[in-house]
Amino acid sequence: MSRLRRGLGEVSWAFGALVMCGCQVEGGPDWVVAQSIERYGGSRFVDVQIQFEFRGTPFAMTRQEGGFHYQRTVRGPDGQMVTEVMEDGGTWAEVGGARVSLSPDEIYEVETAVNSVIYFSFLPFRLDDGSVILRDLGSAEVAGEPYYKIEATFEQEGGGTDWDTRFVHWFHRDRLTLDYLAYSYSRDGGGSRFRRAVNRRDVGGLTIQDYENYAGDSATRDIAELDRLYDEGALELLSMVELERVEVRR
Fold this sequence. Notes:
By secondary structure, the protein is of the alpha+beta class. The chain has two domains: 31-44 and 124-242, no CATH class; 48-120, no CATH class. Helices cover 18% and strands 44% of the residues. The protein has helices at residues 13-20, 28-40, 104-121, 226-231, and strands spanning 48-54, 57-64, 67-75, 81-87, 90-95, 98-100, 132-142, 145-154, 166-172, 178-185, 191-203, 206-215, 237-241, 243-249. The protein has a seven-stranded antiparallel beta sheet, with helices on one face. 25% of the residues are buried.
């Protein structure tokens, strides 16, 4: 269900001045997200098949006619290849060509691992899902460039296993690219991360990007302030988040 509820007419000089002064975004966060999704491929993401590798693990995603099928293939403790599947019809695994059921704890682990990788990999897509709650946090300047700062939280129903995660996104005011994001999480003792988009490229009509992954600052309670710490060089680079062997088919 699209969250796009209103459009924006001609962008005047006065509007640009308002954005730069840190006032709220005219047209709202829904408009910014919708325009960014179009920038990254728009309707090409509605019915699509994507395969990629993340840190050596193969993933696949199919979105078709409103349904979805996500999977990854890992090696089990006994050496057998295990395909873990999350789809609108349920979550299960396949071992040696045979479908096996999972315990509630195993389902949670699969859904957390599979969905989190695919969700992050294809932002800003899915920020217009019905369970997403967007909030305008005003504007910001990062590395001398102007940005819309937009928060995303989730309704518990339909929000997935990590529905209580909070995100902040920095969309470039002119290009409408998603250049930075931050998130806080409660599992495994909690924490926060800040990411900078790199290696942006076109694959099969979709814009794909990788990220530099920075540790958040434990003394900073609000992840919306991590952009300032990044500008000051105060965040530690932990890892690279890179998609490899990406193939897009429709």
